[in-house]
Known about the structure:
- By secondary structure, the chain is an alpha+beta fold.
- The chain folds into two domains: 2-108 and 220-224; 116-195, no CATH class.
- The protein has four helices and 13 strands.
- It has helices at 2-41, 56-61, 115-122, 184-190, and strands at residues 47-50, 63-64, 67-78, 81-92, 95-98, 101-113, 126-130, 133-142, 145-158, 163-171, 194-195, 203-210, 213-226.
- Strands 1, 2, 3, 4, 5, 6, 12 and 13 form an eight-stranded antiparallel sheet that branches. A five-stranded antiparallel sheet has the order 7-8-9-10-11.
- The longest helix is centred in the first third of the chain and has 40 residues, at 2-41.
- The termini are far apart.
Amino acid sequence: MRRLLVWLAVLAVLGVGGWFGDAALRDQAQQRVAASLAEQLGATGVDVRLGGWPFAAALVTRTVPSTVIAARTASLDAGKKEVALTDLTVTTGEVVLTGDELQASHVAGTATIDYRSLERLAGVPVEYAGNGRLGLSYRVALLGRTITVAVSAKPVLDTGTATIQLTEPKADLNGTQVGLPIDQSVIDSLVKPIEVHLDYGLRVTGVTPAAEGLGIAFAADRASLPLT
């Protein structure tokens, strides 16, 4: 019995030591991935959680079964135009390191695009108009002069074309430089879809306008991210 107790004690010590060693390896890897993402995406406040146990096996297979990534701010290309993101969260399935690139499966995430970035995508000033609508300002020739026409519209994502359709457009006379009603056909001709093609194989799956920016959800069956 005494010998059995001694062996159990030895195994317990080895197990605890192995846990601490594995935790150190995981922490070091998480910090390296976070630093790489911060540089690649211009991100701040990056936190990375790598799944799998024991983590030491990941050093051999160069694979982890899951990841959770969060960043306070980040930048991403959308339609060849850089957009600023806040409150970025991403979860993935299996992640494989191949050379200097991460290959992730079953990617899903959310973030908020600020309205200054959305203006670059839309080509016109954009703000939140309340009640789930966007406010956009257009310069048009009307009544023999160029005026600003304010329009509010409901953003609806078209996943097939990766564009935000501006539906139910209405003139906002409070922000329009003319006191006369504007024909709806003029309003309809002004609003154009906003392209939202994301880098790294990501596709936008949902949009939600709010005061702080346009909330987006995105996903990918597989996504690739170069490592610096």
